């Protein structure tokens, strides 16, 4: 079987290489390459001296892009493509690091290990395949029959499996080595159980910063410098661009809304008249993802849809078809298939409210005019002239690197990704299209992201440290309040300081408690102060706390013993995963990665522009 895998893999790679070489030769002969062409040997990054080639990155991006397009049922925006490009790049960097680590540790994979894994450890995609299930459960015998079938050989499935296991088996060996020393004693398992099941309830008085009459504190330059050195990573900032934005909205008229309702009513009449819902959904629904599946939205909890949709859904009985329902997405028909508790199984058909053909044509012509006047230019004056000619008012908007741009309460596709793709101030984008509007952007200023120098964050650090010191200045006042509370009561002390006594609900050591915080000294004190006594002061999120423990309930040891084995396995799995993640993070932080993507993409843009 392994020989068959390799044989199929050879032809797959021949096809891939031939396709790339053909594309590359076309690129070279088309004149796109310019004077200093980007070639198959161009590196987009160097990882510990090992190159990642442009072709590898592009192939990975292309694969992920196709998967995403199939998932969402439409073309992707530049924002989505930028995320895909980063994900593909990070995967390639991690692959190089792992291969280097396999070599350093002497980790290999044998043919027999691949064969055994292929037979006994099916990949997740196979286990989720409905064709390989019996009575709703994965059937390994069906899977093994598939492996032995001519279809598996002819389709290239065996080659794919070999590639999968040659990648995954060494990873698993490495991760097993990294996490082999993880151990959980009975006492540690019990403590983790107690953290989640011990509970406490407290009454407390919170002295806030406003209580201070003297708020003066001194934060030295040395303290600021030391804080910065300990927390440099926390002061990394994304890139920031100020862009001028022109928009041509796809304005919806009352007639457009009326036409959409008439259409959904005709669709409903067709279904009530005997047409199969699934067939109509495939033909008519404007939700391309569910429409391709006959309108199926699958099983899931209630509350996952818009309020109007949920209201209509709640009124339906299983098997019933709704009246037309209007939501921000358009008009819906909903068929509830099953309701089991809070789990719902349903289908829907969507008719979006869109412009009429005549209105859309006018909008398209205006957008084409804007694109021809100012699109893809280095001259910022053309942008202003086009705005004036078309009566458009530019909006000044701040774009943050790797974050989608929002303006006037709407998502603006692609502009943010474009602004950080290597363009320069004064440059104007292509025309970007969305269901709501057309957009054209010009970069007015651009600030590179990354680690911020101490001079840029000194004010922020000073503010943080000053707040901590001000909270600490509340301690003497809190000690006075504590003395009064111990000699009388917490309520009497609070009355003297004209402060309220707050009372919590029951909480565990891992709960986030309003007014107290989470994973801090205040929560810890609730489990150390004797029940009925007043203790403190302890710092909380917004000040200094004096508290009285009202009650405390210990975890049930008998209940713990009954599920100790399961608890241990869950904790071991979590700890092993945590240790692997820490190891990978440490490996990535220790590596020297020279990222050339921006330079390479700029070179390709210049070559394209040289035509």
Count of helical stretches: 24
The average pLDDT is 86
Quaternary state of this entry equals single chain
Strand order of the largest sheet: 18-5-20-19
What integer value in Å does the Rg equal?
Answer: 31 Å
User: How many strands, which pairing sense, and closed or not: the largest β-sheet?
Assistant: 4 strands, antiparallel
Helix content: 40-55%
How far apart, in Å, are the first and last alpha carbons?
51 Å
Structural class: alpha+beta
Uncertain spans, ≥5 residues at pLDDT below 50? 1-35
Tally of strands: 21
Beta-strand content:
15-25%
Shape: globular
Structure notes:
By secondary structure, the protein is an alpha+beta fold. Among the domains are: 199-235 and 456-553, no CATH class; 239-250 and 357-448, Chitinase A, domain 3 (Roll), CATH 3.10.50; 254-351, Chitinase A, domain 3. A hairpin with a 3-residue loop joins strand 15 (432-433) and strand 16. The protein is globular.
Per-chain topology:
Layout: H1 2-29, E1 43-47, E2 50-53, H2 54-72, H3 78-105, H4 111-120, H5 124-127, E3 133-134, E4 137-138, H6 140-147, H7 150-155, H8 157-178, H9 186-197, E5 199-208, H10 221-230, E6 236-237, E7 240-249, H11 254-272, H12 277-284, H13 288-291, E8 296-301, H14 307-314, E9 325-327, E10 330-340, E11 343-351, H15 357-374, H16 380-390, E12 395-400, E13 405-407, E14 410-412, H17 415-419, E15 432-433, E16 437-447, E17 450-451, H18 454-473, H19 475-487, H20 490-496, E18 502-503, H21 521-525, E19 534-539, E20 543-553, H22 557-562, H23 564-590, E21 593-595, H24 597-609
Antiparallel strand pairs: 1-2, 1-21, 3-4, 5-18, 5-20, 6-17, 7-12, 7-16, 8-11, 9-10, 10-11, 13-14, 15-16, 19-20
């Amino acid at each position: 079987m392994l020989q068959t895998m390799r044989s199929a893999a050879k032809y797959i790679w021949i096809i891939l290489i031939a396709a790339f070489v053909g594309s590359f030769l076309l690129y070279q002969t088309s004149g796109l390459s310019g004077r200093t062409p980007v070639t198959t040997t161009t590196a987009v990054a160097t990882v510990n001296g090992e190159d990642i080639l442009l072709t590898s990155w592009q192939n990975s991006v292309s694969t992920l892009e196709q998967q995403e397009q199939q998932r969402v049922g439409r073309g992707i925006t530049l924002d989505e493509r930028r995320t895909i490009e980063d994900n593909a790049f990070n995967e390639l960097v991690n692959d190089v690091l792992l291969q280097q680590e396999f070599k350093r540790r002497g980790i290999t994979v044998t043919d027999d290990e691949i064969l055994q894994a292929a037979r006994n450890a099916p990949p997740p995609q196979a286990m989720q395949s409905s064709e390989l299930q019996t009575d709703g459960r994965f059937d390994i015998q069906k899977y093994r029959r598939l492996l032995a079938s001519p279809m598996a050989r002819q389709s290239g499935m065996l080659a794919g499996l070999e590639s999968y296991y040659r990648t995954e088996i060494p990873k698993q060996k490495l991760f097993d080595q990294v996490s082999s020393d993880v151990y959980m004693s009975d006492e540690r398992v019990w403590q983790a159980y107690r953290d989640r099941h011990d509970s406490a309830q407290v009454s407390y008085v919170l002295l806030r910063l406003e209580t201070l009459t003297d708020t003066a504190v001194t934060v030295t330059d040395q303290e600021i410098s030391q804080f910065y050195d300990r927390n440099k990573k926390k002061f990394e900032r994304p890139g920031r661009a100020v862009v001028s934005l022109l928009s041509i909205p796809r304005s919806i008229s009352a007639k457009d809304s009326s036409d959409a309702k008439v259409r959904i009513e005709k669709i409903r009449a067709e279904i009530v008249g005997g047409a199969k819902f699934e067939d109509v959904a495939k033909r008519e629904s404007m939700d391309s993802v569910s429409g391709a599946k006959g309108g199926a939205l699958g099983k899931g909890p209630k509350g996952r849809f818009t309020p109007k949709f949920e209201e209509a859904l709640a009124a339906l009985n299983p098997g019933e078809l709704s009246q037309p329902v209007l939501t921000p997405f358009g008009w819906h028909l909903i068929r509830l298939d099953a309701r089991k508790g809070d789990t719902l199984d349903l289908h829907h058909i969507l008719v979006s409210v869109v412009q009429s053909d005549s209105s859309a044509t006018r909008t398209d012509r205006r957008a084409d005019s804007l694109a021809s006047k100012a699109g893809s230019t280095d001259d910022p004056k053309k942008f202003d002239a086009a705005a004036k000619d078309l009566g458009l008012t530019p909006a000044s908007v701040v774009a943050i690197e790797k974050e989608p741009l929002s303006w006037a309460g709407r998502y603006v596709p692609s502009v943010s990704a474009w602004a950080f793709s290597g363009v320069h101030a004064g440059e104007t984008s292509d025309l970007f299209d969305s269901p709501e509007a057309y957009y054209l952007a010009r970069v007015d200023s651009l600030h590179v992201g990354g680690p911020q120098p101490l001079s840029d964050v000194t004010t922020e650090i000073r503010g943080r440290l000053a707040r901590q010191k001000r909270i600490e200045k509340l301690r003497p006042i809190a000690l006075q309040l504590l003395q009064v509370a111990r000699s009388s009561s917490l309520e009497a002390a609070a009355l003297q300081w004209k402060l309220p006594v707050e009372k919590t609900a029951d909480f565990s050591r891992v709960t986030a408690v309003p007014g107290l915080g989470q994973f801090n000294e205040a929560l810890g004190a609730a489990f150390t102060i004797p029940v009925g006594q007043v203790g403190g002061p302890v710092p909380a999120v917004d000040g200094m706390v004096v508290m009285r423990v009202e009650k405390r309930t210990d975890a049930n040891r008998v209940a713990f013993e009954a599920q100790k084995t399961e608890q241990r396995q869950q904790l071991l799995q979590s700890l092993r995963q945590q240790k692997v993640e820490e190891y990978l993070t440490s490996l990535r932080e220790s590596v020297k990665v020279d990222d050339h993507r921006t330079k390479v993409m700029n070179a390709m843009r210049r070559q394209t522009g040289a035509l």
